[in-house]
């Protein structure tokens, strides 16, 4: 679905932003592109969606270079920008009807069904976007991204501005898109979203990919193979950390009751810091 080889880009002469990125995304995959602000992740997405030109290297979508048949690509992709790109003097309905006019009518989904799926408040359907909260604008932006039944969906910080229930809803919708066969390119610095959704993740920092694998394999590679055990013995509560291998023959210490056993595997954010030497903010 996506093939990128030796991708470079510079906003200023002699100051490169992307330093030879190489990666691919398979059909029907949710691919996470993770990094802090200024890492190059949004620049990469802008190149892949045809917003930025003047890059070096090779970029192919749908087995074709993106410099060829740009209009055909636009009809096959959906984009959710980090900052909602909507006409604030128009309502949700007016915005979506306008954007729908750019696609063949038979490809477009029902606007009311989309907004209902996204838990959009009916009272605001005809009110101007300027009166919406950030979460409501994000719902309209997601509806815009899904409007044309895209084969490839680019999502930039999709849960930004949403409350916890809204974030759960968006994750469910993204998973449903994957079940339909949609490929999802997810740029984010939200490791919870990435861990729950992504088949594979790439860590980008300073314009370079520092690691690329499934979240599970990244955790396994960087695990310290230890377990934390809470237990009771002779009326006293104790916590101990031991090597997981020591549990092969059972609990290796006297106890009356095991309260909990937890592996001490690193989080995706721990792993990101390990590979890049920096946090996500």
Task: Set down the secondary structure blueprint.
Blueprint (H helix, E strand, L loop, with lengths): L1 E11 L2 E11 L4 E5 L6 H8 L7 E6 L2 E2 L4 H7 E4 L11 H9 L10 H7 L16 H13 L5 E5 L7 H16 L3 E6 L2 H7 L2 E6 L2 E6 L1 H7 L4 E8 L2 E8 L13 E7 L4 H9 L5
Parallel strand pairs: 3-8, 3-9, 6-7, 7-8
Antiparallel strand pairs: 1-2, 1-4, 4-5, 9-10, 11-12, 11-13
Helix pairs in contact: 3-5
InterPro entries: AAA+_ATPase, ABC_transporter-like_ATP-bd, ABC_transporter-like_CS, ABC_Transporter_VariousFunc, P-loop_NTPase
Pfam families: ABC_tran
GO molecular function: ATP binding; ATP hydrolysis activity
Task: Throw out a few tags for this protein.
281 residues, alpha/beta, Rossmann fold, 2 domains, six-stranded mixed sheet, 13 strands, 30% helix, globular, nucleotide-binding, ATP binding, transport
